Every structure is written in structure tokens, then in C-alpha cells.
Amino acid sequence: MDMSEAKSKIQSAKRICVSTGAGISAESGVPTFRGSDGLWKNFRPEELATMDAFLRDSKLVWEWYLWRREKIKEAKPNAGHSALINLAAKVENFTLVTQNVDNLHREAGSAGVLELHGNIMRNQCMNCSHSDYDLIEDIPPHCPACGNERYRPGVVWFGESLPQDVMQKAFDASADCDVFICVGSSNIVYPAASLPQVASEEGAYLIEVNPEPTPLSEIFHASIRGTAAEILPALCE
Ligand code: OAD
To answer: pLDDT tens digit string along 139-168?
Structure first.
């Protein structure tokens, strides 16, 4: 029922905004944050994903990010990522927003992805703003441009602001779409979790793709309980 109504809303939409979280990459083998084997079950965010942690022990923080990079490098985009490429090609105006840092949307071929939390493959200097995607060999590394040791992974840490321009585009696309689709997010981390709420306030039709309910499920018109790789190809065909 939900599925057929959701499909017909997608087919008639001119503007679609899709927002993805860790769940879309689960079937590619990238662990989520809050699932039973999620990253935050085994690691403490404040020891690894904050500026304080980096200033206290940059080597430990880099070791953790390089371990995650290695795991992510082994991962390939799945049918869920690919389905969004097909959808983008069909609709007049398409925006893809992600909380994921894993690069899999780009790898699948999505262009113009709004990466709210940065990209784990990127390195960023806090001193001279140099940024690159180079391999890190010695840890902790130094900025290749200015030599400073405040050279960090290009992701957003707890307590940090999201990139303002990216966030603004994500809010604009959410406010200005006919259909908003949220895939694989627990919808508890803000400001990302505000996006479906903005879309709802502006009258969009809201679709959630997630095997589990979330605290925002009740604002969605269609809550499709299944995995991204199984549901998205059928939803976007
Ligand atoms: P979470 O780990 O909080 O939530 C993952 C969601 O994906 C859950 O609601 C699962 O039910 C769902 N899920 C699991 N497998 C799925 C599948 N195969 N298909 C579809 N959905 C599935 O991940 P996020 O909501 O992305 O932030 O987490 C948000 C932010 O919290 C992350 O970006 C990260 C983290 O702390 C930063 O690092 C700044």
C-alpha cells in the first residue's frame, strides 16, 4: 500500500530530495553507528571524534580514521546507491544529501552530493586550509603545504558546525521539493534530522526507507520497512 502510493508520488514529482544515513551503506559492509554492531557500541565518540580528542592524541585519532578508511576502501556501492543514480536521471530537479562520509555515493556515480559531515577520504589542514585526498603514510601526518601538525581528517566532529554552504543547500532543497526520501538514518543527529521536518512543514510527500522505525517516523506519509538495497531499486524503477 505504502509502496505503490510512494512510487506514484515519485513518478509525478518534479523535485525530489533524498537524504541518506549510514543504513544505505550497511549492505556494502560499512558498519552503522547505532546498530547492534554499530561503531558507537565499540568506540567512545568523545575519545575519537572530537577536537579535544585530536588535540590530546592525534596519533590515536588518525589510527582510528585510517582503520575506517581501509574498511571503506574495501566496500563497493550497492543496489541502493545505484538506484539513486537512475532516479536522478528521471526527475527534473534532484538533490542528494548524505550524512555519510564514506564516499560511496560518489563512487556509484552520483554528482553534486551534499556531504553534510564531510568525507573520510579527505585530509584538511587547520592552519593553512589546504585540503587533499592523498594517502597518509606517517602518523600523525603533517600538512604537505605548510608543515603544520594540525592536519586532520576532513570530517565533521562532535561539537563542530556543519559546512554552512552545504547545509544551506540541503535546507533549501528540503524546503523546495515535492517528494523527500529519507534512507537509512536513525534521525537523531541534528541538524540533519531537521531536513525531513522542514520538508514536512513545506508540504512535501515524505517517504522513509528503513527496516526500523525512527523517532520521526510518524511525520512520514510512507514508511517502507526494508533495506535500502532491496527497496530502493523497486521504489525508483
Ligand atoms: P545510525 O547508525 O544512527 O542509524 C542507521 C540507521 O540505518 C538505523 O535507523 C537503522 O535501522 C538503519 N538501517 C540499518 N541497516 C539498513 C539497511 N540495510 N537499509 C536501510 N536502513 C538501514 O546512522 P546515521 O543516522 O547515519 O555523525 O547517523 C548519523 C550520524 O551519527 C552520523 O553521520 C555520524 C554519527 O555520529 C558524525 O560522525 C558527525
So the answer is: 999 999 999 999 999 999 999 999 999 999
pTM assigned to the model:
0.95
Q: What is the mean pLDDT of the chain?
A: 95
Average pLDDT over residues 93-122: 97
Tabulate helix, strand, coil % of the chain (nearest 5). Answer: 40, 20, 45
> Peptide bond before 141: cis, by omega within 30 degrees of 0?
no
Selecting among 81, 105, 117, 142, the annotated active-site residue is 117
Out of 24, 100, 210, mutate this one to test ligand 1's pocket (max ligand atoms within 8 Å of CB): namely 210
DSSP three-state, residue 217: helix
Q: Verify whether residue 130 is a known catalytic residue.
A: no
Q: How far apart are CA 192 and CA 171, in angstroms?
A: 9
Q: Who contacts 170 (Cβ-Cβ below 8 Å, separation ≥6)?
A: 19, 95, 97, 114, 116, 195
Which residue out of 27, 104, 117, 186 has the highest number of ligand 1 atoms within 8 Å of its CB and is therefore the one to mutate?
186
